[in-house]
Amino acid sequence: METNMVAKDESTLLEVAKSDCDTQIDLCQYWSRKLIKLVEESNMAVDIGGKLYLPVKGWQIFARMAGITPEIEWTRPWQSHDGIHGYEARCILKNREGQIVGSGESSCSEDSYSAQRREGGERSKAVRSASQTFAVSRAIRNS
């Protein structure tokens, strides 16, 4: 009889897990449809080399729907082996309880699009900001 109870408990756990999985899939599909509609209606997608990409504000909307907040953990300067300077940044994602649930890192160099037509401090500021923006997008995409 004890074996039968264990089997029923395992069967119940499996059914609950399947139901939770189905609920998560349904929720993700719902969010995706809403986000796609928002991106299309607001013309938010960016064409880069013939491919459409979701900018950071789109990823931030998705994170907000999931109850996740991006936070820049650090930004620091770096120099490549060929002398190009830039910044790298790390973004962590926190849930509503403040627990870290994901992260992402990215970099941007002074020869990037973000730095074009800028000089001095403005150039450095643009590159630093871009590294943070890229890290936020990557963290949310990774999660």
Quick summary of this structure?
The protein has helices at residues 2-41, 56-65, 120-142, and strands at 46-48, 51-53, 69-79, 85-94, 100-109. The chain has 143 residues and is of the alpha+beta class.
Order of helices and strands: HEEHEEEH
Distance between the termini: 44 Å
The percent range for helix content is 40-55%
Q: Which structural class matches the secondary elements?
A: alpha+beta
Beta-strand percentage? Answer: 25-35%
Enumerate the spans where pLDDT stays under 50 for 5 or more consecutive residues: none
How many DSSP-defined strands?
Answer: 5
List the strand order in the largest sheet.
3-4-5
The total of helices stands at 3
Shape: elongated
- Sheet bearing the most strands, described? 3 strands, antiparallel
Query: What's the overall average pLDDT, rounded?
Result: 87
Radius of gyration, taken over Cα atoms and rounded to an integer in Å: 21 Å
